[in-house]
Amino acid sequence: MIYSTENIASLFDSIAPQYDKLNHLMSLGIDRRWRRKAVREIVDVSSPLSVLDVATGTGDFLAAIAKKSGPESQLTGVDLSEKMLAVARQKLPASIHLEVGNVEKLRFPDNSFDRVSVAFGIRNFNHLEQGLSEMCRVLRPAGKLVVLELSYPDNPVLLLGYKCYAFHILPFWGSLLAGNREAYSYLPASIMKFPKPDVMIPKLRNAGFSSVSVHRFSAGICLMYVAEK
Q1: Cα Rg, the chain, nearest whole Å
Q2: pTM for this one?
Q3: CA distance 78 to 8
Q4: How do beta strands 139-150 and 113-119 pair?
Q5: Structure confidence by residue, pLDDT tens digits, 79-108
Q6: Which of 81, 105, 125, 147 has its CA 20 to 30 A from that of 4?
Q7: Which phi and psi (to 5°) does residue 75 adopt?
Q8: Rounded to an integer, what is the distance from CA 79 to the centroid of its chain?
């Protein structure tokens, strides 16, 4: 099934109340470690920064950024799902601005932010190239994009176990605990369809980024892209 922007917003609205609990449970908490590594690429303790987090969801990544940022930093989160943002508002400081928005049509002027980030949401972009171009557009010259995204291992033995978990165990628990098997079937399918680094790196360069690196975590089930404008 091909999901439109509206479908994706509705899907995440439906799982928002249980999203955090299931995420941490099903990753055995390792997602927190991945976020900490990405935050180190974003935060500069020597000076305040303006940071835009897209596909911000329930705000876990913004919370991690805020914890390490100085009080003068300006943090903004954008997401398609109002109900995911409602959860984020309960955990984030009031100084962080949150709004419903589409990364493919960002309302911000050119060169608005020092950093742009997206954690576990880029695979949900309806038009990946447009989203990448928009994130580059709103970055200031020499600004940095940090992308954290799930992937799958290249090792065939690990891949077999991964697929068993992702396509059988994960939807079962999603159905049992969140009452939504469709959402937790969509999520692993979106991981398998998302481009690997040999495709993703050229896409980032074509979008306007001059320097791109990729870092692999946990046998390749999580990737971090760091791209400078």
Answers
A1: 17
A2: 0.90
A3: 14
A4: parallel
A5: 999 999 999 999 999 999 999 999 999 999
A6: 147
A7: -115, 135
A8: 10
